[in-house]
């Protein structure tokens, strides 16, 4: 079996345990593995043009339907009805739904050419309309199982929205359709179920999910945890820094916030508590670090691939643009925990309790090599779709060699089956969610509401770009409470993306802005799923953990505005401008962290007035221009001066108080 802590790459909407294929009866498990292997071979054949299927070249439409149908069938098996409640009837229902998903997808794939040439999304045979309606129901049921009831309710509303769009006011108005027209546009059109989200899965995402599963099954998670411990474990407050670094490593590969917490938090949170961090602080740190992991290159989450498709740019462009914002986010967390540890005199772990860096790298060199190969193929060679397959092959070969040489962690046939299981489950999860999210895309596209919303927003904001960003931030945050990050981003990319481009903002910076604000719901009450998941491990109050996580992640509330207004922070601009603005942002993040925790490196403990001045200095440094930089440095000098004067005054007051206590009569005279 695969590692029970390895969970899907998708942005899971709730901290609940996910079923595994191993929970199925052996015959069902075998069928699921066969179906998944067929789908993976279809994907490889498509991306590498191997023509392994007797030279037959399949239409794009047929290919999308087959992949969707196969993984919907798998989803009904790995996310089954409650067998304790429904017994044999539940198993029969799951099997029937899987067969229906395969049959519907097979019918549409067989008629792929007719769907395109005869315009079945507008006028289709009665038989096709009935099957289209059944296919929509199957998609919604798979969404319920993989995404939960809240996401089902949102997608269900948009699924039906074209039926009553004519009754909606203002920019929400759109042309209406009847039920047959509704199911035809969703099931047979190119903008809904098999629209952009599913095309991203079929074109890019499957390979990266396979690579992530290969890393997990071959022990990559344990390696990156040990690597982080060897690097930072002995520094003051070391376990918190290990949590941040390991969550960044793991999150960049898994892309899932909750699975990141469940996997790394089980080790990092107890260790943080052991060296003196309060349970609530330890949980908040892990929640923030895991949230940022889904924003960390090179892999990031499913949403990064969808972003590349929406922007019509290579994935490498999005990956490179996300490097500086992610680095600033993690730098802020590292500085905050270091200041916290310094202020409270917390120590690191004992050297004898930590792995040796040389031995760790020697035992896990193949993981680093696989990542280097992946990044090289994406950035230097530009073969994004094929890169994760080659990287997976390199990882498997080097893992086998490393296991043979060291005699440890050998790559056996059983573990290869585990890898296949893990990948199939992850892909089924993301297909179940994104096929349902496609209904939102289809409804907004067919009714034209997305474009109308952007025009209204531009008119409302006028020439005030900051007001536009503020409105976008609030919208992203609210929607992020009820949707997965992928669903939130897809919706806002349609309704807000054009408005941001129309206001003159850099497109990549604008879309990253949406993504970052959508992620904030993970650490912000009342939802704060990441905070609640971490609080369970730390055995502390979830709501109070969410409040603390919001403070620790405060830089993430400011950071999106910084790079949206300064595209140099997404590496768009001249080298000198990029170097200057990134440097200013680093100092700004440092000052924000110091003001938040009340401790500044090379200065020490900060007084309240100094913290306020330092916070203002941080704000001025993020404003472009040398004048604002000068103001920030002047405020820094003022903060240091005020802090020293206040400290000197406190020392005199303490000395006077001590003298008074020692000689009351002499002090009175």
Helix content: over 70%
Tell me the number of helical segments per DSSP (H or I, 4 or more residues long).
30
Total separate domains: 3
Mind summarizing the main beta sheet?
2 strands, antiparallel
Structural class designation: mainly alpha
Number of strands: 2
Strand order of the largest sheet: 1-2
Strand content: under 5%
What does this 3D model show about the protein?
With 669 residues, the protein is an all-alpha fold. The protein has 3 domains: 179 residues, no CATH class; 240 residues, no CATH class; 83 residues. It contains 30 helices and 2 strands. Strands 1-2 form a two-stranded antiparallel ribbon. Strand 1 and strand 2 form a beta hairpin. Helix 2 packs antiparallel against helix 3 and helix 9 runs antiparallel to helix 10. It starts with 25 loop residues before the first helix and ends with a helix. The N terminus is likely disordered.
């Amino acid at each position: 079996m695969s590692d029970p802590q390895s969970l899907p790459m998708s942005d899971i909407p709730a901290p609940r345990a996910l079923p595994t294929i191993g929970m199925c009866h052996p015959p069902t498990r075998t069928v699921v593995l066969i179906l998944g292997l067929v789908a993976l071979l279809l994907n490889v054949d498509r991306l590498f043009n191997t023509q392994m299927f007797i030279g037959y070249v399949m239409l794009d439409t047929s290919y999308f339907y087959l992949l969707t149908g196969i993984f919907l069938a798998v989803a009904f098996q790995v996310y089954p009805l409650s067998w304790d409640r429904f017994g044999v009837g539940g198993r029969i229902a799951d099997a029937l739904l899987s067969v229906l998903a395969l049959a519907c997808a097979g019918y549409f794939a067989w008629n792929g050419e007719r769907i395109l040439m005869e315009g079945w999304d507008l006028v289709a045979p009665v038989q096709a309309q009935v099957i289209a309606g059944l296919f929509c129901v199957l998609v919604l049921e798979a969404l319920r199982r993989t995404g939960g009831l809240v996401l089902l309710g949102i997608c269900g509303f948009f699924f039906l929205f074209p039926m009553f769009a004519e009754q909606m006011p203002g920019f929400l108005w759109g042309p209406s359709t009847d039920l047959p027209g509704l199911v035809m546009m969703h099931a047979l059109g190119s903008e809904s179920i098999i629209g952009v989200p599913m095309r991203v899965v079929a074109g890019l995402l499957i390979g990266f999910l396979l690579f992530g599963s290969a890393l997990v099954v071959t022990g990559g998670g344990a390696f990156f945890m040990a690597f982080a411990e060897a690097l930072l474990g002995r520094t003051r407050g070391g376990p918190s820094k290990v949590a941040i670094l390991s969550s960044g490593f793991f999150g960049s590969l898994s892309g899932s916030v909750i699975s990141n917490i469940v996997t790394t938090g089980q080790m990092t949170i107890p260790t943080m508590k052991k060296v003196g961090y309060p349970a609530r602080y330890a949980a908040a740190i892990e929640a923030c670090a895991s949230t940022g992991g889904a924003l960390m290159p090179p892999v990031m989450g499913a949403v990064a691939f969808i972003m590349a498709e929406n922007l019509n740019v290579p994935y490498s462009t999005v990956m490179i643009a996300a490097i500086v914002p992610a680095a600033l986010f993690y730098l802020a967390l590292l500085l905050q925990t270091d200041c916290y540890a310094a202020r409270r005199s917390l120590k690191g772990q004992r050297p004898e309790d930590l792995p040796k860096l040389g031995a760790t790298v020697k035992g896990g060199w193949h993981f680093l090599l696989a990542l280097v190969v992946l990044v090289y193929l994406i950035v230097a060679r530009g073969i994004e779709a094929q890169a994760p397959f080659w990287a997976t092959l390199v990882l498997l070969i080097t893992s086998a060699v490393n296991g043979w040489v060291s005699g440890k962690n050998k790559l056996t046939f059983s573990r290869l089956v585990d890898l296949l299981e893990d990948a199939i489950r992850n892909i089924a999860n993301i297909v179940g969610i994104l096929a349902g999210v496609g209904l939102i895309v289809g409804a907004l596209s067919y009714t034209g509401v997305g474009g109308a919303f952007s025009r209204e927003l531009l008119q409302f904001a006028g020439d005030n770009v900051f007001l536009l960003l503020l409105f976008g931030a609030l919208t992203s945050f609210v929607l992020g409470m009820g949707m997965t990050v992928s669903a939130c981003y897809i919706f806002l990319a349609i309704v807000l993306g054009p408005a941001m481009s129309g206001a003159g903002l850099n497109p990549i910076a604008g879309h990253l802005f949406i993504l970052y604000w959508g992620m904030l719901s993970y650490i912000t009450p009342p939802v704060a799923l990441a905070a609640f998941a971490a609080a369970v491990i730390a055995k502390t109050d979830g709501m109070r953990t969410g409040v603390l996580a919001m403070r620790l992640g405060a830089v993430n509330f400011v950071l999106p505005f910084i790079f949206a207004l300064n595209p140099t922070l997404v590496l768009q601009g001249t080298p000198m401008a990029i170097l200057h603005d990134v440097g200013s942002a680093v100092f700004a993040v440092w000052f924000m962290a110091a003001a938040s925790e009340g401790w500044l490196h090379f200065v020490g403990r900060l007084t309240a007035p100094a913290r306020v001045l330092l916070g203002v200095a941080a704000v001025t440094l993020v404003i472009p221009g040398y004048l604002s930089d000068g103001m920030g440095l002047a405020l820094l000098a003022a903060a240091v001066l005020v802090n020293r004067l206040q400290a000197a005054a406190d020392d005199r007051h303490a000395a006077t108080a001590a003298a008074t206590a020692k000689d009351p009569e002499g002090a009175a005279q």
